[in-house]
Structure formats: structure tokens, C-alpha cells
């Protein structure tokens, strides 16, 4: 009886949270799944069921393929830049933690993560500007041909990767710093006694022991990489003057299909594809980085 | 009762009366106060709507008008979300080509009799603009202004290049661009001869291409006798239009993709000429008042994009919204809009002479030859998708140097664009038979 009461109490206590979670998370996902098999223009009361037609059209749609390719390149590009760089930066900051400037190092790395996205992207737009940007001024100064950063199909994607990595770095460094602080000092002391150098300790002790942190940071970075939108949008903002080349990414394509082309069902099928990709990649990452003991 | 108590009692009664009166008045004014919101996709229109609201104060002292203007593409998105969720503004400014979907789904209100009579009066609006505010034979909106294009050219640069008059043919545009381009020691252009829309994320690239192709006598889509639509510009006219872009960008290098462009470049004297709507005149007056420039009509004709005020809501708000739409259309307000903002009013019978005397640049927009032709975006569902997808293909073509001097390659691009548009029309059941 007492056990049942306890169980009931636990259920009642968790119910509000579950209800909120169901309302703000489960219901929208279910609704997106449902919409993806319907044809709906957001305005009409008619919402005919069309089965897998949206998905069949998706893989013949050159703009979707372009958006998917660009998004994947950006997401993996950000991952490849962010993980090693944040690990090295966190290690450097950690080993300089007794320095008077330690707080300054941490703050300066973390600031890009908390700076509002649009003004930051506008600043980067200026940095990449082909005519007035400091980046091309620097290249010219060292004798390199200036580049049309925001207009070239390849360079414009690189610009988005740089901007996203710059923003993701602060959070990743912070998480790695927490990881470094939890590593047992005795192991490093033992390694030192055995003659291991600093880089060797970093490579053979820190990196393997930080695997769970790397898993978490890489999942978060990759998922946010696949959700890239505002960075690509602002870098090509269509203001009077010199709008850049629009790097088509999945979220941008979805928004365009939903609210400009009035194809909400079709956009929902794109969202489902994005969901499946992110789920699959997360599972793969868990598989690759899981500890042999079975715990991530 | 002492005098003190008497005064004190009176004072209490007075306070109670005062509180009661204030409470009563505020209740009454709360009942009479009406607030409406205007959604605009043109931030430069904010002063105009505020001017209209200010003018309504005498007749509607309790009316508050909030004007919320954002960039056009974002404006279109908020309308899609706002109208379907019942959270839209009472007055919505929108082009008919985009508004058609909402009219089909009865998301805009039908105009009351007095407004319908005003809009239907041929003395107030021509047939084209009456149609732009109507659907199924009934009036749903009040026509306000239109986007119409003309050539802007820097007279100082023209003089320096020995050019005495604006280009008259499309071939002239290229010849002029060559003469007007300023270059550095390596031959790279520093001031473009003719700024063309070559980049960006919007449908504007396709719209501007359509305007240029129209000068050669071709359109992106055309309506057939059965009321359906078809795209068939993969021909000599289409080739000439796209080839002119490629020739200027990759052949003659009178302009590059990354050069500053559009109104901003013109105002900073970074380009010698470009094609745009009349709002640029207001923009120049505000940002570059010393700029020496003139305008000219285009060789064949122009786009006309009529923008209308639509209303949603009910009760006092809807009533106030219609009153606002009507007030925006008084001759005084429309002339104020032209003079201060630069958009062209749609109403007939306005006396532009005073404004033209001070700002002759408006001449190319209101005084055009009788043979001048106009086209507008079709009022069909997939129009935005057609423009967006065409813009994407054009952007790729503009950035492809292998197309220079390659007519077959350019024709392949045109065929791909045309087939894609026809595919979209077919998907929506709008494709006309060949």
C-alpha cells in the first residue's frame, strides 16, 4: 500500500514536467511527422494525405540536395574545426590556470558564444567584405590575391564554417575545461615519473580520458551545425548594396518552402529528413566514442 | 461639526468624487479608444503611415496607429504566420501577386460599401489597379502605390564619358557601360558602368532579369488564352538578355559579382547607372542630396507591382482600419508619399506638377511614351517559388565564366530555367498547353 502511494506520489510529481515536455517537444515532432505525409499550403482547410509523395519529390529537388550537401559540409566542417581547437585551447588554459590572466583567457574564448548572433555575423560580413574587409587588406599586404569571400561558391561556405566555429568554440572550451578539472592529478604525476612529456600526457592521458566529454561536445556541435540558418542568412543579407551569395542550408530551405512557397507539408518532410540524419549521426557518435565499459 | 471637520468631510467627499470621476472617465475612454496596427514590408513607408495617422487625429482623437515595418521577405513570412494564427495586424500592405492566396482562402475582409464604391469609381483608379484590389468581382482592398522601374544615371559620370543622353536601346546599355566603367591600373573595375542585380538571396535577381528580358520582348511566364501559364523564353530574346549579363560580367568586365551594387552603390558613386523603382529618389534625397543624377524610361517598358492595403479584424478595429486605408488615399497624403518617400501613388487625377518642378527625376515614372508597355507578376500561387528557383539558376550562371561567348551554354541555362518553371506550373495544375 505504502509502496503504491509512493509510486503515485512520484508519478504526480513528475506529471507536470512530462505534460510540458509532451506539449513542447513530443507534440510538435508528432505534428511534423503527420504533416510530412500531407499536402498543405498553411492557408487552406484542406490537407489531403499524399503518402510518401513529398519524400519522393525531395530527392529529385536540386535545391534540397544543394541545401543538404551544404548543411552537411558546414556541420562536419564546424565539428572538425571546433573539437581539436577547443581541446587544445582548453588544455592551454587549464595548464595556465594559476596565471593571473587565466580568467581573461576563459572570458575571451567564451564571449563569442554569448554575443548576439546577428551583430556578430554583421561584423564577420564586414571582415569578409571583398572591397572593404580587413581580411582582404591583410592578404593584399602579404602579397596574396584578394578573394571574393562571400560570393565564391566554395569560399562562401568556408565563411559560414568559420563564423559557426568561432561561435561554437567558447562553449566547447568551457565544457572541456570542466573535464580537465575532473581528471585525476595522480595519473599525470605517475606519467611524469615515468618520463612522459607534456604533449605525451595530453595525447595518451587527457584525450582518452576526455572521451565522454568529446562525445557530448561533438553531438552538441554537430546538431547545432545541422541547424545552421541565421549565420548563412546574415552573411548573404539581401540589403541594398552588396548582398553576398546565398549559401542554401536546410533550415533556410524549410523556411522558404513553408512561408514563401506555402508548402508546409513539403517543408515538414525536409524536417523529418533532418531529424533522421541528426538521430543517425548521434547514434554513430555514441557507437564510436562509447567507453569499453559500456558507459558514454 | 467644526469647520475643520466640515472641511475634512468635504475633502473626503471631493476625493471620492475625484476618484470616481477619474475612474469613470478612464473607463469611458478605454471603451472609446481604438488601437490598430499597420504591417508594412517597406521600412521607408513608416513616416508616411505616421503622417496619415497624424492627419486622422482631428476626426479620430481616440485612435492609436502602430506602424510595424520590416524587410519585405520577412514581412511576407509574418503575414503567412499572423493571418493563419489570427494574430495579424488590422491593416496589411501587400502586393496582389502574393495576396491572391489569402484572398482565395477568405483571410482578408471584404470592403464595406463606402470603400468599395470609392475603389470601384473609374475616376479614382484605372482598371488595372481596381483589379489589383479586387477578387471574384468584389473589392477587398484599397490600392496604394506601385513599384515601377526606370533608369537612374549619374550625370557627372555621363558627362565625363562624353555621353549626352541616356541609353535608348539595350545595345546602348552595354556600350554605355563600357564607356562609364572606371578601372584601376590593372584594368579591374573600381566603379561599375552598369550595376546589375547579380547576387543575394531573394527573388529580386529573377525579377530584375525579367525586367531586362522584357526590353527584348520576352517574359518569364505568359498567360495563354485558356487562362493558364507557360514559360517559353529559351529563344533569341532570352538569349540576348542573359548574354548581356554574361558579357558585362565576364567579357567586358564592366561589373563584377562582388562590387557594391544597387541604390547604395549609386548613392556612393560606385556605379554609373542602374534600374530601380521610384523610392530611390526619396532615398537619394535623404542619403546623398548632392548627387548629380537623372532618370530615364527604359527602352520598351517596365514592371508594375501594385501594392494594396488589405484589412483583417472586426468591430471598431476593422472600421478604423478601413478609415485608415481610405485616409492614406487622400490626394494630399498620396502627394506627400511621393514627395517624401518616393513610391508612386496608384490613384488617378493627382496633380504632380509641384513635385515634378522640384524633383524632375520623377518624370521618367509618370511621363512615359504612349507606346510604353507594362507587365506585372502573375497572381498565381507558385510565383514566389518560380522567382526563387530562377534566381538560384541565374546566380550560378552569373558566376560561371565558361558561359562567356558560349551561346550554346547560355541556351542550356535558359532551357533548364524554362523547364523548371513549366514543371512548377504543371505541379500546380496551371501549365498551359504548348
Structure description:
The complex is a heterodimer of chains A (296) and B (434). Chain A has 13 helices and no strands. Chain A is mainly α. Chain A is flat and about 75 Å long. Chain B has 434 residues and is an alpha+beta fold. Chain B folds into 2 domains: 32-146 and 305-362, D-Maltodextrin-Binding Protein, domain 2, CATH 3.40.190.10; 148-303 and 372-427, D-Maltodextrin-Binding Protein, domain 2. In chain B, helix 9 packs across helix 10 (236-251), helix 9 packs across helix 17 (383-398) and helix 10 (236-251) packs across helix 18.
| Mean of all residue-level pLDDT scores of chain A | 89
Averaged pLDDT of chain B, please? 91
Q: Please, what is the CATH homologous superfamily of the largest domain in chain B?
A: Periplasmic binding protein-like II
* Gross geometry of chain A: flat
Number of helices of chain B: 18
CATH top level class name of chain A: Mainly Alpha
The SSE order of chain A reads HHHHHHHHHHHHH
Would you report the number of β strands of chain B? 15
Global structural class of chain A:
mainly alpha
Low-pLDDT runs of 5+ residues of chain B are 1-13, 22-31
CATH architecture of the largest domain in chain B: 3-Layer(aba) Sandwich
CATH superfamily of chain A: MetI-like
Largest interface, by Cβ-Cβ below 8 angstroms: which chains and how many residues each? A-B, 34 and 37 residues
Radius of gyration of chain B: 26 Å
Briefly note the CATH topology name of the largest domain in chain B: D-Maltodextrin-Binding Protein, domain 2
Shape of chain B: globular
Question: How many domain units of chain A?
Answer: 1
Condensed summary:
The complex is a heterodimer of chains A (296) and B (434). Chain A is mainly alpha-helical and 296 residues long. Chain A has 13 helices and no strands.
Amino acid at each position: 500500500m505504502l509502496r503504491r502511494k509512493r509510486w503515485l506520489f512520484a508519478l504526480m510529481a513528475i506529471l507536470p514536467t512530462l505534460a510540458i515536455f509532451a506539449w513542447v517537444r513530443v507534440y510538435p515532432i508528432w505534428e511534423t511527422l503527420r504533416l510530412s505525409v500531407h499536402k498543405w499550403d498553411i492557408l487552406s482547410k484542406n490537407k489531403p494525405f499524399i503518402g510518401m509523395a513529398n519524400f519522393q519529390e525531395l530527392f529529385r529537388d536540386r535545391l534540397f540536395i544543394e541545401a543538404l550537401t551544404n548543411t552537411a559540409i558546414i556541420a562536419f566542417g564546424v565539428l572538425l574545426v571546433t573539437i581539436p581547437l577547443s581541446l587544445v585551447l582548453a588544455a592551454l588554459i587549464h595548464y595556465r590556470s594559476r596565471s593571473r590572466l587565466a580568467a581573461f583567457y576563459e572570458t575571451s574564448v567564451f564571449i563569442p558564444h554569448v554575443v548576439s548572433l546577428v551583430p556578430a555575423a554583421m561584423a564577420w560580413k564586414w571582415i569578409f567584405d571583398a572591397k572593404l574587409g580587413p581580411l582582404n587588406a591583410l592578404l593584399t599586404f602579404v602579397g596574396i590575391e584578394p578573394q571574393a569571400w562571400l560570393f565564391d561558391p566554395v569560399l562562401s561556405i568556408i565563411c559560414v564554417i568559420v563564423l559557426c566555429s568561432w561561435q561554437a568554440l567558447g562553449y566547447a572550451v568551457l565544457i572541456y575545461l570542466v573535464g580537465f578539472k575532473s581528471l585525476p592529478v595522480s595519473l599525470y604525476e605517475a606519467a611524469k615519473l615515468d618520463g612522459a612529456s607534456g604533449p605525451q600526457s595530453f595525447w595518451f592521458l587527457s584525450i582518452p580520458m576526455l572521451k565522454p566529454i568529446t562525445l557530448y561536445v561533438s553531438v552538441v556541435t554537430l546538431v547545432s551545425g545541422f541547424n545552421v540558418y541565421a549565420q548563412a542568412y546574415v552573411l548573404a543579407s539581401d540589403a541594398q548594396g552588396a548582398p553576398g551569395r546565398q549559401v542554401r542550408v536546410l533550415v533556410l530551405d524549410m523556411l522558404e518552402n513553408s512561408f514563401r512557397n506555402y508548402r508546409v507539408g513539403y517543408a515538414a518532410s525536409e524536417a523529418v529528413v533532418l531529424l533522421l540524419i541528426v538521430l543517425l549521426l548521434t547514434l554513430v557518435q555514441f557507437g564510436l566514442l562509447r567507453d569499453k565499459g559500456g558507459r558514454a | 461639526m467644526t469647520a475643520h471637520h466640515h472641511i475634512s468631510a468635504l475633502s473626503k467627499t471631493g476625493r471620492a468624487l475625484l476618484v470616481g470621476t477619474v475612474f469613470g472617465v478612464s473607463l469611458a475612454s478605454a471603451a472609446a479608444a481604438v488601437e490598430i496596427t499597420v504591417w508594412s514590408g517597406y521600412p521607408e513607408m513608416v513616416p508616411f503611415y505616421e503622417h496619415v495617422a497624424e492627419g486622422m487625429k482631428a476626426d479620430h482623437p481616440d485612435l492609436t496607429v502602430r506602424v510595424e515595418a520590416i524587410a519585405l521577405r520577412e514581412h511576407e513570412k509574418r503575414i503567412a504566420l499572423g493571418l493563419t494564427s489570427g494574430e495579424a495586424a488590422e491593416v496589411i500592405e501587400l502586393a496582389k501577386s502574393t495576396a491572391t492566396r489569402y484572398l482565395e482562402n477568405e483571410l482578408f475582409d471584404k470592403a464595406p460599401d463606402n470603400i468599395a464604391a470609392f475603389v470601384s469609381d473609374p475616376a479614382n483608379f484605372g482598371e488595372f489597379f481596381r483589379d489589383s484590389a479586387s477578387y471574384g468581382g468584389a473589392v477587398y482592398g484599397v490600392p496604394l502605390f506601385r513599384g515601377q522601374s526606370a533608369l537612374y544615371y549619374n550625370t557627372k559620370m555621363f558627362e565625363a564619358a562624353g555621353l549626352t543622353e541616356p541609353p535608348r536601346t539595350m545595345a546602348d546599355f552595354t556600350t554605355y557601360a563600357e564607356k562609364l566603367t572606371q578601372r584601376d591600373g590593372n584594368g579591374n573595375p573600381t566603379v561599375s558602368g552598369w550595376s546589375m542585380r547579380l547576387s543575394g538571396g531573394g527573388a529580386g535577381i529573377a525579377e530584375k532579369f525579367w525586367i531586362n528580358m522584357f526590353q527584348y520582348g520576352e517574359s518569364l511566364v505568359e498567360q495563354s488564352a485558356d487562362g493558364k501559364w507557360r514559360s517559353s523564353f529559351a529563344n533569341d530574346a532570352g538569349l540576348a538578355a542573359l548574354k548581356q549579363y554574361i558579357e558585362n560580367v565576364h567579357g567586358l568586365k564592366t561589373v563584377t559579382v562582388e562590387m557594391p551594387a544597387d541604390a547604395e552603390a549609386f548613392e556612393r558613386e560606385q556605379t554609373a547607372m542602374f534600374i530601380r523603382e521610384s523610392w530611390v529618389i526619396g532615398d537619394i534625397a535623404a542619403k546623398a542630396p548632392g548627387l548629380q543624377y537623372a532618370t530615364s524610361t527604359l527602352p520598351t517598358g517596365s514592371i508594375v507591382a501594385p501594392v494594396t492595403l488589405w484589412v483583417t479584424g472586426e468591430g471598431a478595429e476593422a472600421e478604423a482600419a478601413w478609415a485608415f486605408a481610405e485616409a492614406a488615399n487622400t490626394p494630399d497624403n498620396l502627394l506627400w508619399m511621393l514627395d517624401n518617400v518616393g513610391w508612386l501613388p496608384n490613384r488617378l487625377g493627382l496633380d504632380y506638377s509641384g513635385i515634378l518642378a522640384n524633383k524632375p527625376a520623377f518624370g521618367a515614372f509618370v511621363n512615359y511614351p504612349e507606346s510604353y508597355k507594362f507587365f506585372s507578376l502573375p497572381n498565381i500561387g507558385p510565383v514566389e517559388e518560380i522567382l526563387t528557383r530562377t534566381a538560384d539558376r541565374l546566380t550560378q550562371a552569373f558566376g560561371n565564366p565558361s558561359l562567356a561567348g558560349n551561346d550554346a551554354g547560355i541556351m542550356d541555362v535558359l532551357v533548364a530555367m524554362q523547364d523548371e518553371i513549366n514543371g512548377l506550373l504543371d505541379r500546380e495544375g496551371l501549365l498551359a498547353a504548348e
